[in-house]
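Issue 218. Parser rejects a valid record. Input:
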Amino acid sequence: MYPSLMPDLIGIPAGPAESVAIASRAGFVGLDIRFNKFATQIEKLDTEAFADAMAAAGLRPGYSSITPQKLNVPEDEWIREMTDVPRRARLAQALGYRRATSVVVPFHETMEFDENLAFHARRAREAANLLGDFGISFGMEYVSPKTRWQGLGHEFVHDLAGMHTLLDAVGRPNVGVMLDSFHWACAQETADDLRTLKPEQVIAVHVCDLLADTPLDEQDVRFRASPGETGGVDMNTFLRTLVEIGYDGPISAEPTHPTWKEKPADESAMITARAIRGCFERAGIPVPSPSHDRGGAEVAGRDKGTES
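Output the parser choked on:
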């Protein structure tokens, strides 16, 4: 396992080239990329040059966003986004990215569970089939806090048990789960729940902590603490169990909170890198170092907005 940076999860509005530099300065080992947002930018920077820059910075591919970020987007948006998935996936494959994810919203205003299950299974199967052509696995993230589903409509998958039901309905070998320590804790899950997963079913992992002095039923996905900050999540058990089941992929932080926007990008990245490394150290897990595989290449060009 290795610390990886998804910049926008800590309020950093950086494009791909700038993200490489920020992640490298902070000491991250991996970089996560939203190809559903930055594919065109990376193509303009030149794929091979971008790969060289990542390698020169010692950065491994982390996880990625290639499909829509939520599986339940409106049908017209789904069709439009999925039409571009082969281009994005081809680019991700060229850069060595083998993990893509999307979020399962834990309720629906009108669809009851069985109908929503069939709907999500159909869309996840479509995504998995397209991504599989490029050797990419697809992970779905469940969202567990009661504030995100209780009383909002028909309940849907919001824990690991429900996710197994969805995985069975999808029925594709390259489909698995994006885990999040926050959701694992809010669902009151244990190491035994994590042990129900095969290593290839864990596609990506987020870490963050519960807010202090906030009851479990009142935890809110918009307000989370940095990993290891409050001790609300048993991070030692979470990380050690991931090692036990054989997960060896990226560990990315998602401590969503409005205060990140007030911090400079480098400060946010360094705080987050230290937090993840601290969790590794307290759990007795070796902290890998960046690996500089190629000469000091830099990305030619500059980030130009957020076109995709």
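Fixed in the parser; the record now loads. Residues 2-282 form a domain with the TIM Barrel fold (CATH 3.20.20.150).
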